Amino acid sequence: MKTVKFFDTTLRDGEQTPGVSLNVKEKLEIARLLQKMGVDVIEAGFPASSHGDFEAVQAIAREAGENVTIAALARLVLPDIDRAAEAIAPARHGRIHVFIATSEVHMQYKLRMTREQVLESVKKCVAYAKQKCPDVQFSAEDASRSDRAFLVEVFEAAIEAGANVINIPDTVGYATPEEFGTLVAYVRDHVRGIERAEIAVHCHNDLGLAVANTLVAAQNGATQLECTINGLGERAGNAALEEIVMGLQTRADYYAGRYGLTHRLDISRISRTSRVVSALTGVEVQQNKAIVGRNAFLHESGIHQHGVLAERTTYEIMTPESIGLVEDNMVLGKHSGRHAFDDKLRQMGYDLTPQERDQAFEQFKDLADKKRVVLDRDIEAILQSNIQVPPTFTLSHYQVSSGNKLFATASMSLDRDGETVRAAASADGPIQAAFNAIDKAVGCRFELETFSIRAVTEGADALGEVVVKLTLGDVSMIGRGLSVDIIEAAIRAYIGAVNRYFYEQKQRQSGAQT
What we know:
Elements: E1 2-3, E2 5-8, H1 24-37, E3 41-45, H2 51-63, E4 69-75, H3 78-88, E5 94-101, H4 104-111, H5 115-132, E6 136-141, H6 148-161, E7 165-170, H7 177-190, E8 198-203, H8 210-219, E9 224-227, H9 241-250, H10 252-259, E10 261-262, H11 270-281, H12 302-310, H13 338-347, H14 354-368, H15 376-385, E11 394-403, E12 406-416, E13 419-427, H16 430-442, E14 447-455, E15 464-472, E16 475-483, H17 486-513
Helix pairs in contact: 1-2, 1-11, 2-3, 3-5, 5-6, 6-7, 7-8, 8-9, 9-10, 16-17
């Protein structure tokens, strides 16, 4: 049997999803979940791109365990490689991931380099990276549109210079499965020294073929599969980790039986990881998405319902329990005590510090006073909301007045460093009035780019979650708020985004001074 490795790039390529920006604390939380799932390589970021990215990679490297490799991306330029090496230095197992484009269109119009110049850069910079780190991955950007003979030449040069992983990206999602499978096989059969390197693939989803291309690559010799949680990434995204692994798992008769392929991921952690990534990025998973979509295990038609009730395998090729979707078996409410709450956290797989448990319990008790029954998804939402930056402003109290014949007004009291800041404003609706009052209180005029509301659970007393995206100049930030009162949830989301803005401004100033 051949164990394929999973290289997760949610924190690098996934963060390049339009509108997504994660802070260090959020990236650490996702990295912890990926480690628990058993991901082999975590691409933690692009250290040379910003001080914040450097700090995040370094923080993840410090926490990394024995069984995971922390990778940092770098262009084929020496300062990028130096920065990547410094960022991953604390990791027990680090990797420098260097890349350069090899297609004619990229070399001519983006790089403005000849083939000879690209080859020389590969030889020089891969060798330099090898001096900095024993584990070096080389990627030929836009490989699927590159001349195959030249691609072989580039990979041979990279391996000779010390690369122990060579990556074949379908950067713009152009390849079809048959084409991509033959490309991987061609590289496997024609690159001299390929036995000294691992073959990786990185597929984008522009034509909806990323997962299919990744799986067919594994059939043809690729042993490292690059992917993201929920398929996040540039444009239409990347190959989705959950779809790849459940393909291998569900069709083990085919992938293991015919090709000897297996994996070491803990698939029971898929559902929770997907939901946390969705909450922290603000990108909601489409309802009909394979594996982790809300409709993935729902059956609407009478024929399907009858079949599932008689025998689940009539219409389910996998169980919701296998990916961690377990039905609530212990109901919590306002009379539930600390022991029951702590037991529920352990049952859900959370390992919190005493301080984090105390905070979560207080939030649970507040919610239990407003809801008859507190479900697992409510608790999960509470815990996800705690992954936030240290607050500059905290909500003291608010008051909103509105009606179908009234101009909405809002008054807001916020605490900052022990002092109370008050402001009032009006607007066409109560939520916008509240947002205007917050702007006055903090002294900034933010632009509301996106606003979304969803019910965390069902029923009239459902916990509501609001996600907002704000911009100020060229800076954007996401905020999330939870409450059974949707206006309060919106206010908390807006304040969360404002706090993120002020926190990141401080971080930028700190980075500029160091």
